[in-house]
Task: inverse folding
């Protein structure tokens, strides 16, 4: 184990000093791989869609999200000399390590934001030491962003942050571009604190670590000059926090959902920005607990390479789940969570003790992301029923990352490992259908319509033009019920999966009956997670699938309980109950309370327990 890795793994992360040390260590690990001119950092040979040279720039600039707040908060780092040298080389058109001009929607636009933040927060490190020519080079290189096309999504904030930085150091900047971008950002606001990431149905972690994150930085730095907008961004963040807090578990882990999950503890960056901008939606102790527990959870996972750099993947290194824009240095966006380090040690946040999560309801109906978030086992297990999100630019494995029926902080989710067969497809929390046993499966990719209310989620989707499926998802404690009404002009074969559960250890438990498949159900129960699927209607038989390795984001080997069967032409009704728990004790208790399902001519009813009754839907209304 290297000294840097020892510093990371032995960091108990209990204090401001511990968080400072973690930030310094992570930036130091990156700096050790800087090029001779300090303008590039090559962390590996895997590629993104943009050129390797751009990826090397990303490797240098993303760690600034750690170094900038670290220095703004008073930490003295020797790393700035390397960064100043890199900036001199990278922005000098005559240098061998010149970062180059922008070409269209260039990835360098994204990376410019960290320099804008640095100019705004630590001009004494990045601006004042430069001579006049070097200042001119840096300002001119950054000002290219004002000639670049404005994207319609979270990229709108990049010219805002860059121009804000230029403004703060007295360089030439474009107020016109800032105003135009800020106006377009408002067009993405949905209400209740939620944004869409552009004109799409995508509402994932980008709402937190991009839209709100940059908005809160703007609110903190422009409170006097643009007070009305600053107040607006703070108010929106406070509203968003009421929903977003449900995505975080008691032990620090959070809900895996959507794209760009390789940024890891960037998912907690929103809470860091809340504190930085002075938004007291919850007590400082509650926010401190969320932030610190999440980062602590992450630094204990096998996500680091031998040099102390974050790998591409989620809970372990995994290129299968990567996006086309994930280069070796991309995961350093996790350092966005360090923004709170910019606050002085006297700030009440640092004086507060960590607090547990506040009392939260068992269910949160979140209409903007089309979710019902279920919190079980005292907040240790988070499940999200979802339908209807869609990212128009089709990120890698879009259906798996947005359109599964359920997502979980315990079980994660899986992406396909191949195109042929159910085991390659790894269809956890999905209904996957193929024609006449051809083994080429289709799943829900885009919904025709979605309705979300306290009863559940109703959606309509078409895997083929002549196959229409009405799906209902109903929360029932640690269970949820799925009902499908299928109208098909094709003969189909189908499988529907529960969660995929880790089977990396204690495989001897299989012979003791923890993994079972019968006519009406399939289950896989382990001490670290239990899942099962029970048939409630339809001609399907239980099976336990061994998906291809490295398909699940959380665990490299999994087992997947599923129901398999054939579907004829015409109308077919399917229904099942799916169980997901963190412990076997909870699974044993819940197993005795499997939901009861009753279908009638014009709808159906689901009964769970003695008190929770009734989610009835009129199928005629759905047809209309």
Result:
């Amino acid at each position: 184990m290297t000294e840097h890795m020892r510093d990371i793994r032995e960091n108990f992360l209990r204090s401001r000093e511990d968080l400072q040390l973690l930030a310094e260590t992570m930036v130091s690990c990156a700096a050790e791989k800087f090029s001779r001119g300090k303008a590039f950092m090559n962390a590996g040979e895997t590629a993104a869609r943009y050129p390797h040279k751009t990826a090397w720039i990303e490797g240098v600039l993303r760690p600034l999200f750690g170094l900038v707040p670290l220095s703004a908060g008073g930490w003295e780092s020797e790393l700035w000399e390397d960064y100043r040298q890199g900036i001199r080389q990278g922005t000098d058109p005559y240098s061998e390590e010149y970062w180059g001009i922008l070409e269209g929607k260039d990835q360098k636009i994204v990376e410019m934001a960290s320099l804008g933040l640095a100019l705004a927060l630590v001009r004494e490190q990045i601006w004042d030491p430069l001579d006049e020519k070097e200042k001119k080079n840096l300002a001119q290189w950054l000002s290219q962003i004002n000639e670049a096309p404005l994207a319609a999504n979270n990229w709108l904030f990049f010219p805002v942050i860059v121009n804000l930085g230029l403004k703060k150091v007295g360089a030439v900047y474009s107020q016109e571009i800032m105003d135009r971008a800020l106006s377009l950002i408002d067009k993405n606001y949905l209400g209740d604190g939620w944004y869409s990431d552009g004109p799409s149905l995508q509402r994932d972690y980008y709402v937190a670590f991009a839209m709100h994150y940059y908005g809160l930085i703007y609110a903190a730095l422009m409170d006097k000059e643009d007070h009305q907008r600053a107040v607006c961004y703070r108010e929106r963040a406070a509203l968003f926090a009421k929903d977003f807090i449900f995505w975080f578990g008691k032990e620090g882990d959070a809900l895996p959902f959507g794209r760009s999950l390789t940024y890891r503890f960037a998912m907690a960056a929103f809470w860091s920005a809340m504190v930085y901008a002075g938004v007291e939606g919850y007590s400082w102790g509650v926010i401190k607990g969320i932030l610190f527990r999440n980062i602590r959870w992450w630094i204990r996972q096998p996500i680091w390479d031998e040099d102390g750099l974050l790998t591409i993947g989620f809970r372990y290194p995994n290129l299968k789940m990567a996006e086309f824009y994930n280069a070796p240095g991309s995961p350093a966006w996790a350092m966005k969570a360090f923004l709170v380090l910019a606050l002085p040690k006297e700030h009440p946040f640092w004086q507060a003790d960590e607090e547990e999560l506040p009392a939260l309801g068992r269910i949160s109906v979140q209409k903007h992301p089309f979710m019902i978030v279920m919190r079980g086992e005292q907040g240790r297990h988070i499940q999200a029923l979802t339908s209807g999100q869609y990212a128009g630019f089709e990120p890698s494995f879009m259906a798996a990352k947005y359109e599964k029926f359920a997502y979980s902080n315990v079980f994660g989710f899986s992406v396909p490992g191949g195109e042929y067969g159910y085991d390659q497809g790894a269809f956890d929390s999905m209904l996957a259908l193929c024609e006449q046993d051809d083994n080429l499966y289709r799943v829900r990719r885009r919904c025709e319509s979605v309705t979300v209310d306290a009863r559940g989620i109703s959606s309509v989707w078409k895997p083929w033009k002549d196959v229409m499926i009405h799906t209902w998802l109903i929360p029932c404690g640690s269970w949820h019920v799925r009902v499908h009404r299928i109208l098909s002009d094709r003969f189909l074969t189908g499988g529907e999966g529960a969660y995929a559960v880790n089977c990396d250890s204690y495989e001897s438990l299989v012979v003791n009956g923890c993994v079972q498949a019968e006519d009406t159900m399939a289950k896989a129960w382990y001490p670290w997670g239990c899942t099962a699927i029970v048939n409630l209607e339809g001609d399907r038989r239980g099976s336990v699938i061994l998906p291809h390795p490295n398909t699940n984001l959380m665990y490299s080997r999994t087992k997947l309980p599923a129901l398999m069967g054939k579907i004829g032409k015409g109308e077919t009704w399917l229904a099942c109950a799916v169980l997901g728990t963190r412990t076997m004790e909870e699974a044993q208790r819940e197993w005795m309370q499997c939901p009861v399902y009753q279908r009638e001519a014009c709808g159906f009813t689901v009964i769970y327990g003695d008190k929770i009754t009734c989610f009835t839907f009129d199928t005629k209304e759905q047809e209309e």
The CA atoms of residues 407 and 544 lie 19 Å apart.
